[in-house]
């Protein structure tokens, strides 16, 4: 193991010495040749350093576009997606009529997808990625990448849906049942094609039921009636759902509570 570590260190030092010698050269054509070799060998950090060094020399020359193209991809291939997005953007601004423009438009959108965070975190990059993927599809409807762009948008939409569901569930878990009910119903409106619509509606019913249970006597009647209203809406929307029996249970519980509230009200008035 120690021998391997020493051997690896020797290789790394040798590589670093090699790139240092190339960087010290005053011959931009030699540097470019070496950058191409490093790029072909997927040594993107070294290639990036050399491309960056020769870009000013080749600016305005025919080679410049290809150099900048590969320079942008050295950032992408090192998973430096923030820098790659900026470089792809600059490429499109510098070469709007390039034959590679369509590819770079997609890659720029893709870098936002790669920067998209987990559902629990900020979704700014998710929104940007979705917007840019939609723009790509609209601009290049016949592109071979359009199908992939649609699939990515579905993935990102599910991520946003998951985030919104977790926010609604948090309201429920901390006992904010009115906010939870509204949030679960908002999920249905925001994601009408979701596969979880009946689950969200049931969560809304549960939330309204808990709100009614914990209400003061004067508001219980109205709020249990709201539960029944939500249950009826569920049955209209999802008649084939496997959750129908659970919803029927909430109807029966609410009716019993309404009956009890009415009986108590009658006793009080008499």
UniProtKB/TrEMBL annotation:
Q: Where is the Outer membrane lipoprotein BamD-like domain?
A: 34-212
Gene3D superfamilies given in the database record: Tetratricopeptide repeat domain
SUPFAM superfamilies per the UniProt record, alphabetical: TPR-like (SSF48452)
- Name the UniProt key words of this record, in alphabetical order: Cell outer membrane, Membrane, Signal
Keyword Thylakoid in record: no
- Entry annotated with the keyword Amino-acid biosynthesis: no
- Recorded protein name is Beta-barrel assembly machine subunit BamD
The record lists the organism as: Cnuella takakiae
């Amino acid at each position: 193991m120690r021998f391997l570590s020493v051997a690896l260190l020797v290789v790394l030092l040798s590589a670093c010495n090699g790139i240092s010698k190339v960087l010290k050269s005053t011959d931009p054509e030699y540097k470019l040749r070496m950058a191409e070799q490093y790029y072909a060998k997927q040594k993107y950090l070294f290639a990036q350093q050399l491309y960056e060094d020769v870009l000013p020399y080749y600016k305005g020359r025919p080679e410049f576009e290809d150099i900048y193209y590969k320079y942008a991809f050295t950032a992408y291939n090192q998973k430096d997606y923030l820098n790659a997005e900026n470089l792809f953007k600059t490429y499109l601004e510098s070469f709007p009529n390039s034959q590679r423009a369509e590819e770079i438009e997609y890659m720029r959108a893709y870098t936002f997808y790669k920067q998209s965070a987990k559902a629990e975190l900020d979704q700014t990059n998710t929104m940007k990625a979705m917007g840019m993927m939609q723009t790509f599809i609209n601009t290049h409807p016949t592109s071979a990448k359009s199908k992939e762009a649609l699939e990515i948008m579905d993935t990102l939409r599910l991520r946003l849906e998951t985030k919104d569901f977790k926010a609604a569930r948090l309201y429920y878990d901390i006992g904010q049942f009115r906010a939870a009910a509204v949030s679960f119903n908002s999920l249905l409106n925001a994601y009408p094609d979701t596969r979880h619509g009946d689950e969200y509606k049931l969560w809304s019913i549960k939330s309204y039921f808990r709100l009614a249970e914990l209400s003061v006597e004067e508001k219980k009647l109205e709020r249990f009636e709201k539960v029944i209203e939500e249950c009826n809406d569920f049955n209209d929307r999802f008649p084939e759902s496997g959750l129908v029996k659970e919803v029927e249970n909430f109807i029966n519980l609410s009716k019993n509570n309404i009956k009890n509230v009415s009986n108590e009200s009658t006793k009080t008035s008499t």
